[in-house]
TrEMBL record:
This protein's record includes keyword Endoplasmic reticulum: no
Protein name listed in UniProt: Thiamine phosphate synthase
All residue ranges annotated as the Thiamine phosphate synthase/TenI domain in the record: 11-177
Pathway(s) served: Cofactor biosynthesis; thiamine diphosphate biosynthesis
PANTHER family in the cross-refs: THIAMINE-PHOSPHATE PYROPHOSPHORYLASE, THIAMINE-PHOSPHATE SYNTHASE
Species assigned in the record: Paracoccus fontiphilus
UniProt KW keywords: Thiamine biosynthesis
Domain of life: Bacteria
Record bears the keyword Phosphoprotein: no
């Protein structure tokens, strides 16, 4: 994952939580053919066997398009299925462990809620990116929405790339674009009948 130029965040795509590999494949391929994606993240929520099938499917589709793939928290699954790294959902505490297990070339990302302190800890521990969220009102996340000023401060003070996630709207996207390296999109499009059309309306 490379840092984005100012005002032009890259698309960070998340699979639906608990997705089934059999139904996700065509939708995932369609979205990734329609939009350039910087990274694909496999959300947890399925049984391990199904996550393994998802990992193989996602890797095949994403790597054919030169897109990196990370998976929520499962260091062992990332290793077993040839993924590019992990996205840690519980703050900075597992960053060093994941780096040790996966090696220097792996992607280790870290979700830090709305905590600047947790984000700085993750960066110091060697995370390749941190994500903050939710940026909008969302029942899928614990905690209050992140203030825009956190992204503003981070973009000015910290070199570690930052991802904005959680209840992204067109209005929020416009506000976050100048101060975010990546915008994570997932639930916003998968609940729609046509995810490509939903992403087109959101991303433009």
């Amino acid at each position: 994952m490379s840092d984005a130029t100012p005002d032009a965040p890259q698309l960070y795509l998340m699979t639906p939580a608990g997705a089934q590999a059999s139904t996700l494949g065509p939708q995932l391929a369609a979205v990734m053919d329609a939009f350039p994606v910087a990274c694909l993240r496999i959300r947890a929520g399925a049984e391990e066997d199904e996550l393994g099938r998802l990992a193989d499917l996602a890797r095949e589709i994403a790597h054919a398009r030169d897109v990196a793939v990370v998976i929520d928290d499962h260091v062992a699954l990332a290793q077993r299925h040839g993924l590019d790294g992990v996205h840690l959902t519980d703050g900075a505490k597992a960053v060093r462990y994941a780096r040790k297990e996966l090696g220097a070339d792996a992607i280790v990302g870290c979700f830090c809620g709305n905590s600047r302190h947790e984000g700085m800890n993750a960066g110091e521990a060697g995370a390749d990116y941190v994500s903050f969220g939710p940026v909008g009102q969302s029942a899928l996340y614990r905690g209050e929405p992140v203030e825009l000023e956190l992204f503003q401060w981070w973009s000015e003070m910290i070199e570690v790339p930052v991802v904005a996630e959680g209840a992204i709207t067109r209005e929020l996207l416009e506000q976050l674009s100048p101060v975010s390296d990546f915008i994570a999109v997932g639930p916003e499009i998968w609940s729609a009948g046509d995810p490509v059309a939903a992403l087109t309306a959101l991303w433009g």
